[in-house]
Amino acid sequence: MNIDYSQKIPNNVGLSDDRTLQRALEHWQPEFLNWWADMGPEGSTAFDVYLRTAVSVDPAGWANFGYVKMPDYRWGIFLNPAETDRRIGFGDHKGEPAWQEIPGEYRANLRRIVVTQGDTEPASVEQQRHLGLTAPSLYDLRNLFQINVEEGRHLWAMVYLLHRYFGRDGREEAEALLERRSGDQDNPRILGAFNERTPDWLSFFMFTFFTDRDGKFQLCALAESGFDPLARTTKFMLTEEAHHMFVGESGIARILQRTCEVMNQHKTDDPAKLRALGVMDLPTIQRYLNFHYSVTIDLFGADLSSNAATFYSTGIKGRFEESKLGDDHVLKDATYPVLEISGSEIVTREAPALNALNEKLRDDYIRDTMAGVGRWNKVMQKNGIDFQLTVPHKAFHRQIGTFSGVRVAPDGSIVGQAEWDAKVRSWLPTEEDKAYVQSLMGRVVDVGKFANWIAPPPLGINKQAIDFEYVRFN
Ligand SMILES: [Fe+2]
Ligand SMILES: [Fe+2]
What we know:
By secondary structure, this protein is mostly helical.
């Protein structure tokens, strides 16, 4: 399935045969480029960046590397190849042929899902737009830009669905995706975590580890959709998402490595001394982890949700790895454990599984996250440092769901406001933490050089050397 790059909009969906769609997208494209110029990576337009571009959606063809100026990146529309005779795998329509057009009665819900997913893509580009100015190396700068262009392409993927399947209101939604702004008072992005700032590279790596992983789980659930074009487009997005999470996981691992080296060299675990030595102390990293984790698990929504039940039963959003689950895939009589507050304790109770699907996806996410944090802890182990990062309790620092109204410590104990106020400085990043991390952010762009607070990666990108010129400034 090669991508046709001879077209104004590269695609593998036969765009040249669909005049209406072509007109809609060609109208939207300059608006997208204006948005990129406005809100994309700051001051980057003249740089030659060593980027991968998809030339085909086959496993071999989607990562084609070369120097590209980012405004010339070939954003386009790439769907995974269609499966012959694909059937819906869950819900009331289980076993029926997957839909190639939207069933009228599900149109509003599908549009809402596509718009909500689509909104996160430009949001993260906006959140990250200043980070290029403080990149710790050319290698990291390239990775940032790779993520930025691919999030831009994910926006294209959702806009394609809006234009192709939703008519006029789809076109209006596509315009609105370019009008909302992350963190804007009057016209913010739809979801909370996408209105937070990403002011430094510690936040960026945490964001790509935690929040891009939320993206992975949402995309996996949508890749099961009975609406086949949505399933195919999200499957292809997942191939790109893996690299985003890699950037976060390896970024934090390199920060940990550098901190451990300095701790061993100077035989100290005193945060003040380590700060004086210009590295990030481990308790600060734990507080950033607590923040990003708690903000991200809110993205899965309320613990019990009738919308989630509807999305599932109507066949528009499945579960993570639906086909690998050994139940009836209808869930009418099934239950699922959820947490609730009973007096001064958090207890587990069984809820109808259909209503608890957000919680199930959140739990799948948490398992994946904990495995990643376990890999981070190996860095401390290998360096002989007696410190382990931990994932806070699911109820800690929540803004959505059962726990939004209570104060819960990272260990899961319910605390009063007074205790929260007394201890929150050791649980969440303080203004001093943020100012310190910010003070480390300086631009390092000499070939092969890295900022003092982060170790070089073990390998370069696409088998290139670590001191490869990943970005040329001209
Ligand atoms: Fe994305
Ligand atoms: Fe991503």
